[in-house]
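Q: Could you fold this chain for me?
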Amino acid sequence: MSDTVLELKDATIYQGDSMVLSKVNFEMKKGDFVYLIGKTGSGKSSFMKTLYGDLQLTEGEGSIVDFNLKTMKEKDIPFLRRKLGIVFQDFKLLPDRTILGNLEFVLKATGWKDKDRIKERIEKVLDKVAMKTKGFKYPHELSGGEQQRIAIARALLNDPELILADEPTGNLDPQTSVEVMEVLQDINRNGNTILMATHDYALLLKYPSKTLKCDENKVFEVVQRKS
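A: Sure. Below is the predicted structure, expressed as structure tokens.
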């Protein structure tokens, strides 16, 4: 298996009939941490949606965790998403279930049956995000930062080959953003590959890494000067 987890070649991304990003060329290797930046409306979300199958790639070539984005059928999307961990800005936790219930729901929906294995896996991911004692709580009983940690734990459940984090700190205050970022850095050091869309430039300065920018329908790499 190659260590390329994501590759786009001359990929043009559309939202409906309007072209959002033109001729994108990009490759991501296992273990990378890459930022995706750009102003609101510059195409970051469309870029992410194309990667997890919400928007179809119609022009150019694209592959992600061994799925061909161009030839992928509707029925393939759930299988693609099992190999991805997706973290959203607004957490998307189920409000009527405890944290354990939220995580259990995902595992059962993706085919896990053995109760002991489910319990063990949930404990492991909660431990990774330092939330082991919060499993019995409901989402509304947690702070925004804690909810986002749980969302990251949920993204880790099926040991994804790539984590797509779409503005994971967008709803958080600066201090909490740093805490969440530390969690992401940590799991990246443990070998998880992460693509993170963000408009929080303070984080880019604090945690420099390869950066792609969406601007005027193009995606290009920004060279960061090391401080």
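A (continued): The helical segments are 44-51, 77-82, 99-109, 115-128, 144-156, 174-189, 201-206.
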